[in-house]
Every structure is written in C-alpha cells, then in structure tokens.
Amino acid sequence: MTTTTTPAPAVRSRLRPGTGRALVSSLVLVLAMLTALGAFSELVTTAGSWRLHVLLALVATAAVVAGTRAVTTSAWLPSLTGLVLAGYAVLVGYGGGALPLIPDGGSPGRLWALSQEGIRAIQDGVVPLDVGRPVELLILAAVLLLFLAADLLAIGCRMPALSGLALATLWVPAAALGFPGSTWALVGTGALYLLLILLGRDTPVALGRPGRIRPATTGLVATAAVVALAVAGVPALTALPIWSWSGPPVEGTGAMGAVRLADDLDLRDSLGRQSEQVVLRYQVSAVGQSDDDAPRATAGLAGPLRSFTLRDFDGRSWSREPEGDLTSWDRDTLLASDPALIGATPDPTRGTLIRLDLVVGALREERLPVTVFPRTVGIGDPWVYDAARDEVVGGRTDISQTYDMVVEVPDLTADLLRSATGDLPEEVQPYLTVPETEHEDELRDLAEELTADADTAFDRALALQTWFRDTSRFRYDTTVAESESDDAVWDFLQSRRGYCVQYATSMTMLARMLGIPARLGVGFLPGSLASDGDYQVTGSDAHAWPELYFPGIGWVRFEPTPAVQTGAPPSWSNPSTAATPAATAAPSAAQPSAAASASASAAATAGPDTGQARDEQEGTPGLGLGLIVALGLIIAAGVAAGLVLGRRSAPPLTPERAWTRLRTGLRRYRVSWSDAHTPRQAADQIRAQVDRARGRPLGSDADRALTALVAALEAERYTAAPVPVAEDVLRGWVDAVLADVRGTRSGSRRRATRAAAGDGPGPGDRT
Questions:
Q1: Cα separation of 79 and 77, whole Å?
Q2: Residue 720 domain boundaries
Q3: 278-310: b or e for each residue (b if 16 or more CB lie within 10 Å)?
Q4: Which residues form the Transglutaminase-like domain (predicted)?
Q5: Domain tally for the chain?
Q6: How does pLDDT run across 128-140, given as a tens digit for each residue?
Q7: Residue after which a domain boundary falls, among 155, 175, 202
Q8: pTM of the predicted structure, to 2 decimals
Q9: Are 447 and 464 contacting, i.e. CB atoms less than 8 angstroms apart?
Q10: Cα(272)–Cα(303) distance, rounded to whole angstroms?
Q11: DSSP state of 420
C-alpha cells in the first residue's frame, strides 16, 4: 500500500519583523542603565542586596517590554505594559498586604510612607549612605522609570539619541551633590549609548501606522532636541529642592542633607570633599545711608559669618570649652564681642549700618552664623546668647528658616589698632595658653624672629599674617603631610602645606606666644553673588580664621590663609593699606623649601567681591565637572547620532577644510597656533616650531606644499571668485607637510611632493 504525506502548511511567525534588533537594543539599554548606576559609587554603600534587587527588577521589566513589543505594532503599548506591571511589582514588594502578591487597601499608604522615609534618610544621612529598604525603593523606582522612558524613546519612537537624557539623569545626583561617580562607569555608559544609537538607525518600528521617517530628519531632530533639553532641563533638575538643599556635610566625609561644621578640628586630618550645597542665602541692603561716599552694602563689607569660636588646643586638635552663661536678649539691640556694646542700639556714627536678611538652606547647626561685627539678631526662641564667646546658640537651624541682622561695621584702621594699649581683662587670659610640646621653644623663637621689627601688638600680628600669606613660603593644599612630632603646628611649618585650619591655628598659637590673646573663629566666607541678586553660601565656603584681642577694641579678625582660598585680607590688615614691618627671615630649622604657588592679587576688602575670590580648583569638582561631563556626553552623542542617521557623504575637501585637517594633524606633534594668527603667520609658526623641536627646518618640498596651501586658503578667504583646487592636490599638500614633520618619506609624501613641485595642478590650476 502506498502512502503519501501531505506537507503541513507553513506556520507564519507571529513575531514582528525587526524583533531581533529590538531585543538587542533592549539588552544594550539594560546594560547601559546598570553601568550608569556607577554614578552612585561614592554616594551609597555597596553592602546589602539592593543592587541585586535593582538588577532583577530591571531585567524583568525589560523582558515584559520586549516580549510585548515582539507581538504588537504599537509604539506605546510595550512601555505602558511595562509601567503597569513594574508599578504593581513595586506596590506589592514595598507596600504589600497580608497576602503574598496581592496588595490591600493600605498598600499605597505604606508605599508612600516608605518613600517619605527614604527621602528623610537621604536628607539626614552621611555619605556613603547605607541603602536600607526606603532608599532602595527610591533607587529602584527611579531606575525603572528612567529605563521605560529611555526604551520608549530609543526603540518605540526610534529616537535613540534622546534616550541619553534618561541615562544622564542617573548622574544628576552625583553631579549636583559634588560626588563624581566612577569614571569607568561614565565611559561605559557613553559607549553603550553610542551603540544604542547605531542599532537604532534602521529599527523597523512603526509609529502607529506604516511609513518611514527619514533618517536624516530623525537625526537632526534628535540632535536638536537633545541639546535643547540637556541645556534647559538638567540644570532645572538640579534646582529642585531635593537637590538644592541636600548635600555632603562639612563634618566628616559629608552628608547628603544636613551640613554641619565640625568643632573638633584636627590639624592632622586632610580636608575631605566639601559640599557644594547651599547652606545660606541672603540679601544685603544699606540702612539709613545718605552719604554717597559710604561703602557699598555688600557681602564683602559684612565679612564672614561666624558660627562659633574655639579656645582650647592640645597641640593636635581643638575642643570646645564649657558653655558660659546663656541669656536672652532684646532683638533690637546689639550683640558684640565688646561688652561695652552689648545691649546698645545700632549707631551710624560708630560705623556703617547694613542689613542682612538670611534664609537657611542645608545648614543644620545649633550655633547660628552671625557676622564678626556688632549686630542685632532677629530670630525667635529658643535661641539664646553666649556673651563669653559671642555666639547665638540653643536652637537648631532648619530649611527655609529666616532671620535678619543689622550689622554695625566699625571703621577699623591700622592706626586705631596700633594705638590699642592697656591691661588685658581677666576673662581673656585663658586665650594665652599654649600646649606644652617638644617644639614649643622653637615655635617661640620663630615668633620672636618673625616680629623682631614690630613695635606694637598689631604690627606683630600683621607680620605673622604677612608671613603666612607669602606663597613663596607656603602652599594652600587640602592634603596634609604625615605628622612627624607631637606638635601639629610645628609639622605644618615644616611641610608648608595645608588649608585654613592649619594656617589659622598656627597664627593663633604664635600670637599667643607673643602675648596676644587669640582664638579660632569657625564659620563661612561671605559666599558668592547668585544670578538672582542674592548671595549664596555653600558648604565649600566653610572657613576658619584667627581672632586676636586688642584692649579697648575687642576681638579682631585676621586672615593668614593665602588669597587663593580667601581673597584679600581685611582692610585693616591689608599690607597695601596698612604699613607693616617686613617679616624677617625665619630660623633655618623652620624653613624647609616649599613649592611656590601663584599669588592671587589682593583687592580692598570693602569692594563688592571681597572674600569671594576662590581658586577655581578648590572645593569639589562635582557639580561643575560632573554636570559638564554628563551634558557633554549627551550632546556629543546626539551630534554623532545626527551624523550617523543622516548617512551623508563626506563634504568636498576645500582649502579651508584642508587647513583644518593640517592643523588637527600637527597637534599630534605639538605644533599649534592661535586663532588670532593669519594663515601666513600660522605658516611661520609651523616653520619655527618644527625647527625648534627637531633642530632643522621644514623640508623644502614640505615648505613649498605649505606655501601653496596658504595661498589657496588666502584665495578662498579673501577673493571674490577663488580658483578651485582639486581635492587630491589639497590632500597631497597636507600629506606632504605632515609626512615631513613625522620624519618619513612615504609614497603619499612623494606623490604630494611632486604635486607641490609642479607635477600636479597648483593653486592657479582649474579642475
């Protein structure tokens, strides 16, 4: 019996065309999101299972989205499905009810409460932050939302360049808080992002109806949108309250919300990364000024804002002495370090009156920042006044808290301070104490040597300040050298490297050895003027300075820290306005060589920028560097996407483009010139730099090629109808110069040489 087999009908695949590429794109996007989590490498700890939970949730969400996309032509349905299922999973996982996998009526409330707990943990935590369940919820939810947004843009809408916005958002916290993440993570994220753009060139995903969007149009639109949104959107994100009021603290390694000033300063500790978060914002206005010659009401005139002072130093670190008597005060009368002014009314005859209206940001202090000058302080209870230390204490600053001061800026002058004489009050005697260390005698000898030509206490103080601010002797450095003795001041004077705590402490101790009562003031520099006209003070403005006591005047601030960090010294101690005896050479034992740094220029303290000049390299490279890198990555990749998707052929080679190609090639050999140079001047620069670098001039053939290229470039730039030059001739001229600089005679160089010598068309030949 013969049997026949009838072929079964072919089963038509239910998968959409292009599913394979879409799956690969989804995988690349998942890897990019995981790599971008490296932005949190310094913000949070790696302990715990939070990374595994984020990985599993991300992979599961990606699988749901990719699976839905494989069987539908809708651009939006896969993302919507992923959003619904991811939201359900988060609700069950973090706000679950009595039954597994089934939420109840209280689940949304529990989820909301957990998220609020996570926000509070971020605001009050310390870097690196321990990732508990509340913080894990916030990270996981953010990653899933950003993945869904990036997936929709890159695959659903065929605009992969715009997906970079979602990837960059993960870097915003690190950039805004001043804690840059892993460099390798940034590079890896960028590489995967570019691969995603490459994969997205021909992804056949419909936008609801058949048709094809022109690649060039997509590229140009994506590039323009990325640039516009990156410039406008990312800075706006950093302005949100969750970022602008949360950041690393000044104390310890840094807090993500609360910024506090350390009062147990150790001279042997290097300066950690300082917060760039705004701790105070304030406005300055004049009070009753009718004299046009009166100083302008600026933050520089008000000076730094001091939170507290320190008296006790053990040779290594400072500690707080017991609090004095705490009293309430009339908010309309003065608080001052001079007992005679406490309770007085601000008087314009004693100085310039200005008003400060302040708003607290990330600062969480039990000691209120106030000016070093006499001032009224308008703030509610429970704040009280410690007259012995001139501190307003007892409360705790909180976000958006406001207070005001009317400051009486005295007319302090060098002559007034020189004339300050008399007996020291009993209460300042403890401020003459110096620790007993193995180098105490050497330090006393040094202090005497430095001030040998000074006749008054003020001139001795001025000589010390001038010596410390000399950048040929000292270098501002946030890294402290290893200790070599039990005397941190002596160790600092050996290394000559340190930051404000070392400078201020050293001057304080040397002043005490000279019989001048001295203490350490701790607070903030005046800050900088923001675009809205307010002054803003950040954690990186935290500062320490010495305050010296003069009979009949009170405590007076000096500034020994170099100008790169503090700007000019106070007007009364500025050597440009106060004559001072030159500091004599220090004993050789205390003068090891130190690398000199560039000295910043000093301006009058009363100027509008006083106290605000800061070394651009000081502080954290975070916000500026991290944000620029992230935005640069997005913009560069967006431009690359436009070029790739545009599929445009290379533009024709013109003399201008050939000149640019030559300039780019010569940079590899450290031959460059300024844009201000004309082509002929640039050619002279090329010849001179090549001659200087290798000891012989540019070869004759290469020189003729350079001359010919310059002539063609000048013709293109400066004549109405330049004669076109063939591309191979232009290319030959460029190759001839580069080959000669490189020192080889390749075949291309020989061909270029013949072209330059006349065997090929020249600048005057038509093609």
A1: 6
A2: 655-741
A3: bbbbbbbebeebeeeeebebbbbbbbbbbbbbb
A4: 492-562
A5: 2
A6: 677 888 888 888 8
A7: 202
A8: 0.49
A9: yes
A10: 25
A11: -
